Amino acid sequence: MTKKIVVLNGNPKSSSYCQHLGDRYEINASEHFDIRRFNLSNMEFNPSLDCGYDARQELEPCLADFQKAILWADHIVIITPIWWGGLPAKLKGLFDRTFLPGFSFKYEGNNPLPLPLLKGKTSRIIVTMDAPSDYAEEQAAPALAQLDLYTLQFCGVEKAEITLFGSIIASNAEDKLHWEKTVQEIANKGQ
């Protein structure tokens, strides 16, 4: 059976280095695996979970498609920048709106601990940032904890493999070529 991979470019800009890395991943992985690609910049939805979990908020078509792809996937690849030490607001909104009770987790009875519903899936998070490399891991840590531990793992996805690229703003052509080759190698392995 061919591995099924969802690739999410989590940068809300339509043209970005994350978009470029997503293209590299998709092109290489699609030679060996089934791929479904989402670009946050093309997804039109209200990122605010206006009623929390108190009332059902109708999903826009792109969100329903994203949920179907997540259920279909064996592996989830998220490519995102770190802005101000956190995730882009629209990316956070994507997870707020789609990783809902009954879809990615559920509560049973009086048990305060949720039952994760996305077990058996793996993930990789590819992060870009402008922080100097000496501070990159420290600056990325809160956003990675939010995305990996408190979102993906909370819902049953195995601990993510992390790939961190930076400083983008201080990089040169050689740095970017190295990063692109790294993404291509990861993609060829379906990681």
UniProtKB/TrEMBL annotation:
Residues 3-185 form the Flavodoxin-like fold domain. Signal peptide: none annotated. Its EC number is 1.-.-.-. Belongs to the NAD(P)H dehydrogenase (quinone) family. GO terms for molecular function: oxidoreductase activity. It comes from the Bacteria. Keywords: Oxidoreductase. The lineage of its organism: Bacteria, Pseudomonadati, Pseudomonadota, Gammaproteobacteria, Oceanospirillales. This is NAD(P)H-dependent oxidoreductase. It is an enzyme of class 1 (oxidoreductase). Coiled coil: none annotated. The keyword Zinc does not apply.
